[in-house]
Every structure is written in structure tokens, then in C-alpha cells.
Design a protein that fits this description.
Blueprint: E1 5-8, E2 11-16, H1 20-86, H2 92-127, H3 148-158, H4 160-180, E3 186-197, E4 205-216, H5 224-273
Antiparallel strand pairs: 1-3, 2-3, 3-4
Length: 274
Amino acid sequence: MYGANSISLTLTQPLWDGFATRSRVRTGEATVDSMTYRVLDNATSFALDAIIAHVDLLRRREILQLAKDNVRQHVEILDSQKERVELGAGSSADVTQTKGRLARAQSTLTDAEASLREGEASYIRLTGKPVPASLAEVYVPEPMYTGYDAVIEVADKNNPKLKAYMSDIKAARGEKELAESAYHPKINFEVGPSYSDRSGPGSQWTSGVDAGLVMRWNLFNSGADKAGTEAAESRTRMATETLYNFHDELALEIENTWTRYLAAKEQKKYYEEA
């Protein structure tokens, strides 16, 4: 008995795969974009936290300085009233009241010192840097947005998390297209040499080169293709719903922030006039 032996090499060039390759590329690009925007979103969030820590530390230092000035003024007032009492021009009741106000001022100073230490710890945690001896003032850029609608327009164009969710939708659509490609035949151009040894005594090797178009089509896959398509459709709907929900939350947050900004501007005007 002699066995038959054969050796072949086949080079395959896909010609048609139901857009499966295109879908994989689109899905991959969208996934990379989504991850990139998420990294940018995290970076901007960390930067915003650092800016808030900077402003908050400035505020706490200013409050501490005001508390110190308040204590100093109460000490001066108390000394002045004691002198008046000694000269017979004041009453001990005024001294007692001033001592009470001084005690409250000193208590406020203690709270301000503790608050400053908390602010310094938060600054170090959020920036990763030691607290500097002096901090630069933070100014509101001019001009600011003209209104709420202008802020929404900029957010729709530049918000990194919003762009990440948009990329998630593109990736989900690419997965759906990839699942639908299973409904199409696969057409390849195949070429390659082959060598075979027919069974029998002696060497009877033959060789040849084959080239041609080959179509493969899985006509029945036990419903797996349909299930994969439906799952991809569900992921697309979920990604779309996530985008809409985030956009609603973003619009509400912008509206609330804009309202607080306008209120702060109005309060600042009254404080400056006081």
C-alpha cells in the first residue's frame, strides 16, 4: 500500500467580503477616537480641579487675612476702651461687649486657619505640587460668552465626553455593519502551486499552478448571524441613548452654571458699591 502525498501553497486576495473589512476599520478608528476623547476629558477634568483648588486657596488666604485684620482691630478697640475706662470716659459694659466680640473674632480666625490648612492639603493632592508662598490672581477672561445658547453651541462642538459618546455610536454602527456582512458571500482570488505524489511504486510527483475566483457563502448558521445583528443594533441604540442623556445633563449643568455666574456678577457689583 502506498499513500498519496501533496503539498500546496495558496495566496488569497479578498475581493468581496460584504464590507467586513471596511466595517472593522471604521469600528477600530471610532474606538481609538473614543479613547482619545476620554483621555482628553480626564485631562480637562484634572486641569479644572487644579484651577478650582488654586482659586479656593486664594479665597481661603484672603479670608484668613480678613480674620487677622478683624482680630487686630478688635484688640485696638479693646485697648482704646480700657484707656477710656481708666480715664473715666467709658463704661465697663463696653469693655465686656468688646471682649465678647474679640473672642468671636479669634474663634473665626481659628476656623480660618483650619480652613486654610484644608485648602493647602487639597491643593497638594490635586496639583501634585507644594503650596507656593504666593499665588497669582485669577481673572475672568474677556469677553465671556454672550449667553447660555453660545455656551451650548461651543459645548456641542468641543466637549470631549460628548465627542467620545459620538464615537461610541460610530463604533456600534461599525459592529452592526460587520455583523450584517455575514449575510453576504465571500469572494477571493486564489493562486498558488501544488505538488502531489500519486500512490504507487516509484516517484510520480506532479506539479501545477492553479488560479481562480472562489466564492464561499454560509447559507445557514443556526441563527447566529441574526442574533449577532440584533445584538449590534441593541448596542447602537444603547450608545445613542447614552449620548442623549449626557447631552440633557450637560445642558442642565450649563444652564445652572450660567445662572450662578450671572448672580455672582450681580453680587460683585453690589459688593464693589458697598
